[in-house]
## 1
Amino acid sequence: MSDHHNNLGRWMGGSPFWVLLRLIALSVVVGVILAALGLDPLNIFTSLESLVRHLFNFGFETVERLWRYFLLGAVIVVPLWLITRVASRGR
């Protein structure tokens, strides 16, 4: 019987009680993270689809926002760069 208990403990990666306790704690932490992402365990596939769609849309919003920042900065940076290049060429 002791050999069977040792084999079970070796297979599970430790004492069954502590492994179960760690699995419960890890499940709660992962559950909190997934809930913060808006996932629902009752319809996980719909929730995952919604999350992917949201991240996809967020990515495009980020690109659009970066493009606007680029254009705003380029209005100042490019003419200044051009002026400094022309001015340094005359030297």
## 2
Amino acid sequence: MLSALILASATPALIPLPNQVQWNTGSFALTRTTPVVSQGSSSETLDRLREALALPLRSESGGDSAIFLKKGPGMAAEEYDLNVDSHSVRISATTDAGLFYGIQTLRQLNQNGQIAACHIHDAPRFAWRGLLLDESRHFFGPKFIRKYIDEMAAHKLNTFHWHLTDDGGWRMEVKRFPELTKIGAWRKEQGVEWDYGNLYFPGPGSSAKLYGGYYPQSELRAIVKYARQRNVTIVPEIEMPGHSLAAAASHPQLQCELPADVMAKYLKDSNSQAPSMVCPGKDSTVEFYKRVLDEVMAIFPSKFIHIGGDEVDKTLWHQCRYCQSRMHALGLKDENELQSWFVRQMDAYLASKGRRLIGWDEILEGGLAPGAAVMSWRGIEGGIAAAKAGHDVAMSPTSHCYFDYSYDSIPTSRVYSYEPIPAELTGDERNRVLGGQGNIWTEHIPTPPEGRSDDLSASRRPRGDALDAA
């Protein structure tokens, strides 16, 4: 018993735990001169091995005592086999993605240059292994995003859900609509915590001290490439039609048109200069978002594009002549169906470009667009309803997956206990669950863990004059 306890304490923790792990006696000694023998793997894979082990490993054509990377048929896309003995480390896979994950396991096995002898075989259960970061409330910059992707990759998470727009700010350069970043990327300087009562975008020419930032398209493309090299797909989120204050403040023509006294009261009550939702009754609003999506798709090659669709305040739609005219012309019974109609326009447009729409579970209200997938966050009921209706689902309920909640609310043990496939689903319905996702919303997280980033590029810094953002 004592020897078993000693062995257990000496074996490294592997996260996530592989499907099959067999610990053997002995270990492989890793040094700066350990050779790597590549059998069909790419030079990029060798770069990832050097990165993971923090060693300048050299590539050789043969030898017995080495790290062997071998590509061959017979395994799934992200499946790998890892064998370690005192003479060699052998990682086999069918794809570079499989080799990459074998390398990440090797990284965790490395204990001060000693790799415990073992045989590990692993493959992921789910295709969608996601993590969200909200950068609308607070902007962290490209240096932190690369670190975030590195941590995802090390733990075999493969989908970075990048929340780029919301009420707090617009973070993606859109060349067709430069006002989105000239105005919508900058707001009044705020304190440590997010304040919904201070949603104001002064715009160019203001003398206010501004706070915010955005990503130029060149930087976005560089980050997409960086993520791809680490087997991470970036799924961008462009919020619509709600959580759109930054867009509405930048482009007032997107707002509903109401009697002046009605709009004035709404803006006074919301302590803002623009509503948080756009007008789906205007053809120009639909066209605006299609043009935005054109530039999103040109940068992000992901199959899915996230359009949000959550928490839409439909108050103004009740009184907007454009919204009511649209509803009357289409025979829509309420504003939920109006939102559903708007989502269907985006779904059809993305489908025409070979992409798929995904949105939060509110897009179920009023009827779901034909090709849409659902991200279930308000519990699991939305995911169950979508799967039973034949739609794909990513599970992300607040009960287990909201990492901005307190640790008392969601401890690590609760996260690890989560089963993404609800018991209510049977047969083919279970196959509709793409996987799960953790979310980090930043209302109360203004800086990275180590403090404010020093990554103050030309597109990210507090400003005294918004003309600098032009």
## 3
Amino acid sequence: MGPEWVAIIALVALFVAGTLLPINMGALAYVAAWLVGMFALNLDEKEILAGVSADLILTLIGVTYLFAIARNNGTVDLIVSSAVRAVGGRVALIPWVMFGVTALLTAMGAASPAACAIIGPVALGFAGRYKINPLMMGMFVVHGAQGGGFSPISIYGTITNSVMVDNGLPASEMTVFLTSLVVNLIMAGILFFALGGRSLMSMRLDPDEAASAAAGVPGELNEGGVTVPARGYGTVAPTGTKPGIRTEQVLTLAAFVIVAAIALFFDKNIGFASITAATVLAALSPSQHKDAIRQIAWPTVLLVAGVSTYATILNTAGSPEFVGGWAAGLGVAAVGALILCYVGAVVSAFASSTALLPIIIPIAVPLIAEGGISAAMFVAALAISSTIVDVSPFSTNGALMLANRPESITEERYYKQILGYSVVVVLVGPLLVWATMVLPGW
């Protein structure tokens, strides 16, 4: 049995074990990476550990540390209340605002994980306080990032278009961009109505209540004329505390702006920027933030570190290329295209979409050349299939949503919700994308 098959079988085994047993899948992935790496690929431990994404791990640690401090000093509550004022208290608009802002950031060139790291914690803060389904809110952020992620000036768009040109395919920047945006909008719409969005339409938050939320006082929702407390995290302000912006909140807001600017406009690592900002804020108020380090999402860090390590083993074994080459060799081009869409989805659910796109698009060239398939629509289908699965808790974006869950839901429950949704997306998404974009032969 070749190493590519060993790596695939081990992947299935660790996924099944991680689903059935109460064991962090990151730990299982480390075990699988060690065994497959040493005995199937003849790698030493240093080569196996070289697959750990230090950039991703630092991003998770830095961002969750910074937002732990922001939660402690009430800055997240302040952002939430201000945004509620901006939408006139219309709770149903909040998820769409988060989708639009995240899409705008990635369309302007922000890395998808950076945009999710900036918007995700704020969006999930809304979910916790105003009784919005956390799964819907978190997935809105991820789908927003992917919806804008293929603009001609974005990272995904630049990679996809350059790979097409390098392989002699006609570049179709707007086709790939608009199809990705439409698909992610449709998925967001389905989530909105499936996860309680219709009930949010009747909810209004009194904008005056948002001001008191800045001081930690729970706001109120109006549901069909009945006012009820808005449940979520946050501390109740001591008696006599008046709503207002404190100096530490101003400094934290400034830190957010600086971190975002460093990541988006200067193309620096958001993990370094976040942990630097968090350290400075902690140094300014050491007694208040001495326990913030404990709020870093350490189980999520283990999960992503282990899975990213195994993803490198999978690529080293040549498993994606093996399956892709087999698909390209099939006699029916449309069937080969469907298989490649699934390969992109499954691999990307555990690995980097950015790293996968330059690998899987060239594999599709023979199908495009010999099967009479539209290059623009097939590449768009591959690109979408390989990125909509970033909702997975094993990917950077999904892991960021898991790491910043509201306290109103346990980590285990939220993990299972995200995992369940990502399984549906992996199983159904590529098929629907293929059926609407490749099969008709546009």
## 4
Amino acid sequence: MPVVREFTLPDLGEGLTGAEVVRWMVEVGEVIAVDQPVVEVETAKAVVEVPCPYGGVVTARYGEPGEEVPVGAPLVTVAVSPSGGPAADADAPVERPLVGYGVADTPKGARRGRVGAAASTAVVTPAVVPVISPLVRRVAREHGIDLARLTGSGPDGLIMRADVDRAVAAAGPVAAPAASVAPPVAAAEVVPMRGLRRAVAEKLTRSHQEIPAATCWVDADATELMALRAQLNRSAGPKVSVLALLARICTAALARFPELNSSVESDGSGIRRHSAVHLGFAAQSERGLVVPVVRDAHLLGTEQLGAELARLTESARAGSLTPAELTGGTFTLNNYGVFGVDGSTPILNHPEAAMLGVGRIIAKPWVYEGQLAVRQVTQLSFTFDHRVCDGGTAGGFLRFVADCVEQPGMLLRQL
């Protein structure tokens, strides 16, 4: 007799308490192997496939696409052969049981009414019907079938698909309900906050409520920076992006102003200054705005930064970023110039204490060496937690960044 094993949603790390079902990769009645992915879920950090540690026949699934499943709650139940092999021949046809069958009263302390319970303990009675999944309720309602009145033909009274088909055939067609006339209402759509969108909303709300943030900004002449990039890209080797140059400027600025690479303790008792720079950067993906993290960015040169930024950006577009690549940042670089805008006052990426924003680089009239000229100008903005520093430190950081943009040769002093 197969033993039914229950596989629950594991802890996916970083303090996540649940995940949203994106799509099921197996069907009820399907024979699966050990460690075969059974469901794709979306956490606050990434979309991941979850493998099941049991091999056998899937007897039940929990959660429809779009539903939230808490960590520790059941995902699937699997009928496992006591000998360790599959509970059924993979080549043999498998009759799929209807999810949501009745069970008899059980002794005190035993489970009852759980969808997909072990077939060896399932006994159909006409008096007891569990909580049934929305899908089963809808099917039963459409066909006018009372599951409590069915006698199952499967093992130990398990209700099979054939039992339902016979009940539907015996009952005959169900008359469609008369259409009701509803008063006209204004057209509106409510889009639920799920997965990443909900996590971002919660994090931004917490940041706005807990962090006394301030923003300062300055215009900078980026003509020399763009000329340096063009010169580097004329030589052999990987191409250097503007983002890579800005990232290198950030690590140099944080080396001079290390108090900005910090975060305030959750209870407000102190300021944690980080010895390593884990540089987050804003990237657009199909799931929305995400912030991948370049680990130990302070140890990387410009080409190395460019390679890692490109790798993480591609992973963001492909939706393959891991939770580890989306957490642990200590400072964020936000290049909103790619959206064609000049300035912004972003909300800090909690619990980080600072964020540098860079607007579009565009030709503008500019006074250069006492003469009016057309130069490549950008606006730099700096948002910071006022608890970790005063305006003098923030202004000094931003001025250093602007000087490096205008005179990139200053970076040689940091080598």
